[in-house]
Amino acid sequence: MFDILLTLITEGVAWFLVLLVLLVDIGACITLLFLERRNPQVVAGWLLLLIFLPIVGFVVYLFFGRHLYGEHIFSKKTAADESIAEIAGDQYQKILEKNMPLPQEIERFDSTMALLLNQDNAAYSDNNAVDVYVHGEDKFAAFKEAIRSAQHHIHMEYYILRGDELGREIVDLLAERAAAGVEVRALFDAVGVQKVKREFFANLRAAGGEVAIFFPLKIPFLNTRINFRNHRKILVVDGKTGFVGGFNIGDEYLGKGPLGYWRDTHLRLHGGSVAGLQTRFIMDWNYAAPKSPVVVRDNSPYYPAETLSFPHGSSGVQIASSGPDSAGRAIYAGFVSLIGHARKSIYIHSPYFIPDETIFTSLLMAIRSGIDVRIVIPCKPDHPFVYWASYSYLGDLIRAGAKGYTYDNGFIHSKTAVIDGVACAIGTANWDIRSFKLNFETDAFVYDETFGRKMDELMRKEMEEKCTLVTVEMYNNRPKWIKFKEGICRLVSPLL
Question: What is the CATH number of domain 330-495?
Fold first, then answer.
């Protein structure tokens, strides 16, 4: 009798679990179909996974599939936000009315500017000095110099900080400035500092500095918000100097890691564009540290009017940001717009090249229009899954007439696009679905023929000296096992 009862209970529990999984899967399918605004291809992929592998599919969806569209987590506005929004609105109207004074060589990019103004209040300024760093030693030398020079505040926002020699040096410098009375705020992504213990920041906090974590782990070593990472790398010092680009903080970015030499692209900005980086940091900080917000008032030292308006240079710059909380996707839209404005050349660096249909089609149209399209990806993977998907997309564009390269002098992590040697997009966003839709990113859109020509020449030289040209013959003759890996990786790439 006991055995029969036990069997009935076991069967009842089993059926209950089956019913629960079924209901959860149905709920996930309904969410995908009716509540989330997605590419049909992505929706179809998730539905197939949930239907044919219900338990595994739901676990994968829980960690990788959910979006934040419509949540608007950065809804709190400061006086500075409203001021920049007003400037952006005014500039937008001037562009629509063809009343925006722009140099002749960048005039044709006014629709890209208008798009970023409309999507992200990315105010345009034309008084910027822009310095570019492609070597870790050079970037961090300038980075540390800027930190040492701080007199009022240091605002740092980074995806990854390693607990190694460089990481310790940067944190110690921050502590020194905090002890000297400088306001120091450091914001890091939870996944990016997952291996760094809280004690690592003890001296900084003791000196008066503040540290906040973006989307902290609710359960140690378990985070169901894997996709929604703060991938931004920003430094603002005294509201006067700004940094943005691809370098994280750690010894590997100095070429001391297993991938060898690290090639990246990072910008130092002086001028009105620094206000855009400052606003982005303050919004992110106030979300992550609501008990210790940055309060911006009139004549705020966070926005030094004289410095921001001073003619440091002649580069036009917009700071654009995007994230999964908004369907606007300003950076993505900016990329599409830049491709559409190309007349001669499109040069792209991306360690992870997984374009969606719109980007891919835009590049194909450019190639078939006779535009010189060149794309550089790494020769070695740091994420094999993404690498083989990237190689597959690169191969299709090569067959269409593009020039594809693999970077041979170490690992290339640069996120750069140069259009006609005039307009550039440089920042934290890769040319992949994760950056387009799933992570929080920030890019500088630079409009300047002198700077653009410099970037154009730099990229051309590296293609010739430090890259391997992947020909159609090379790609077509790749081994069958590579073709198999490409096929599998490309098949599931939309699920990212």
Answer: 3.30.870.10
